[in-house]
Amino acid sequence: MSAFRIFRIAASGLTAERLRMDTIANNLANANTTRTPEGGPYRRQVPVFAPILDRAVRRGGSPKETFSGGGVQVVGVVSDTSPPRLVYDPQHPDADAEGYVEMPNVHVVKEMVDLITATRAYEANITALNSAKSMAQRALEIGR
Description:
The chain has helices at about 5-30, 110-140; strands spanning about 45-60, 65-80, 85-90, 100-105. The protein is α+β, with helices and mostly antiparallel strands. The strands form 2 sheets. Strands 1-2 form a two-stranded antiparallel sheet. It has a two-stranded antiparallel ribbon with strand order 3-4. Helix 1 packs antiparallel against helix 2 (about 110-140).
């Protein structure tokens, strides 16, 4: 595997995890938004990732093909379809006739756990990138 391919794969992971952290930050910022331009409470956003498959490879004369990975790509960001939370607050301006307010389907604890896992994945990609860089530098020093 070439060093440039390793850099490309790690960079795609960094980009994906950065988008994931940005999406989580947006969800946390809107955890109490009860009114949106579309109407109703804010809907939690979730990024969708897919693998980048470089090419098909046949191994050992097997008729079955396997694919060589090339990183990760962002397919899109979708809204979570879970229902909004109902909170009893008759003083709230968006309360219905019974006093309930539809709150966003954002759960702060779940978002924080997702943020920690995204941060760890980001750090793992940085470690892979730095290791590949170090190996490439050492390979260049062999010729001296």
